[in-house]
Amino acid sequence: MMRFSVVTAFPDFIESYFTTSIIGKAVQKGLLEYDVVNPRSFAEPPHNQIDDYAYGGGGMVLKAEPLARAVDFVKSPDAKVICLSPQGKLLNQALVESLAKEKHLILVCGHYEGIDERFVQLYADMELSVGDYVLTGGELPALIVVDAVSRRIEGVVGKSSAVEDDSFAKGLLDHPHYTRPSVWRGIEVPEVLLKGDHGAVARWRRRESVARTLSRRPDIIKGAFLTPYLEKGLYVVLGDASKAFGEDEHLSDDVAIKLLKNAISIAQRAGCRKVILILKQVTERHRVRHLLSKLKETEPDFGNCDEMVKMVPDIAKAFGWIREKEKEKPYVVALSSESKGNEVDWNELKIKILGMCRPVVFCFQCPVERSADVCLENPLGVDYERDILSGVDSIAVALEKTIGFGKKEVPIGRDR
Ligand SMILES: C[S@@+](CC[C@H](N)C(=O)[O-])C[C@H]1O[C@@H](n2cnc3c(N)ncnc32)[C@H](O)[C@@H]1O
Fold this sequence. Notes:
The chain is of the alpha/beta class. Helices cover about 40% and strands about 15% of the residues.
C-alpha cells in the first residue's frame, strides 16, 4: 500500500484525480491511500495568508510556516517529503521505480515564484522536476508523480507484463502497438502479429524497440541495460585461467574461489549465459570442478554456479561451442593486455551490439586480437601490470560500460 499526501492550495484539482479512472479504482481497492492538505488551513487567521512578497522584490512566495504545519500534520515516520520544483532532480523511470518502493510520499506544490527556501532546506528530502520547462504550479507535477509511481504498485494496472514492456521500463522505447481492424485506411498490421507465433512476435517487438530507440532516442541507450534486447546470448571468456587454476596452484583455494565467485556474479548481473574458462590441462579443469563444488556447499546463493561455468582447452573450442549452441557465429569483443585497441566509443559498441543478431563474446586475456570483430583498450584506462585478478575488474568495467547491470536504485533522501 502506498500513501500520497499532497500539500496544495488547490485541493479540488488534486481530489478529482484520486477519484477518477485507474487511480480512482486503485484507491477503492485499497492499493493506494491519499490525503490532500491545504496549507491555508494552517495559516494564521483571520486572513489565513499563505503567500507574501519576495524579499528584494519580485512576485509572491509561499510562506514557510503554513507549509511546515501542513507537512507536520500528515507526516508519518516513513514519509519522504518531495518539493516539486523545476530546479529539482529530473524525474525518470529509474527514479519512479525507487519512489514506488517508499511507503508514504508527501508532495509539496509550489506556486507563484516558488516556496520560501528555508522550508525546502528544513523539510525536503528531495526536490523533483518533471522537465526542463516552467509550469504555473506544482499540482500537475505532483499528479505526474502520483500517476507514474502508482503504475508501479502491484495490482494498480491490470496486467503487470504491460507495465514491464513499457518504454523505459527495461531501458529502451516500447515497440509499436496495433488493434483491430487488421487493415485501416489501406495500412496493414505487420503480418507477424497476426500469425500467433509468440517467439516471432517477441523477436519482432524487440527489434522494433531497438530500431525505434536508435532512430528516436539514441541518447537513452547510454544508460540502458541491453541484455533483454539481445537476439542471442552473451558470454564471457577468461583466457589465461591457467594462471589462477593451473597446476602450480599459485592461488590458494580461498582466493581462487573468490575469483570464480566474482566472475560468476558479474556475468550473472550482466545477464551472461556462461563464463567460459580456457584451461588446457585436465588437472586444471578438475581443480575448478572441485572449487565450484566447494563454492556450492558454502554459499547458498551460488547453488547453480557450476551451470554458469564452462571449461574448454582452447579458444577455438569456446567459439565453436557458442556457434553450435546459438546457431550463429559469435561477435568477438577482445580485451587483452596486448591489445593496442581500435579507439572504441563504448556507445558505438552498444549500438553495434544492439543492431546485430549474433551472440556476443567478451574475451579477456585471450590472444584473439586478429580474429576479433572489435578490440577494446584496457577498460580501466590506466597502465599497470595486469593479471587474472585485474582481469575480473576488467570484465566488470567492460560489461558495465557496454551492457549495463540492470536497474540502479536512485537514493531518495537529503542530498544537500
Ligand atoms: C512558476 S514556478 C516557480 C519557478 C521558479 N521561480 C524557478 O524559476 O525555479 C511555480 C511552482 O510550479 C512548480 N513547477 C513549475 N515547473 C515545474 C517543473 N518543471 N517541475 C516541477 N515543479 C514545477 C513548482 O512547485 C514551483 O514552485
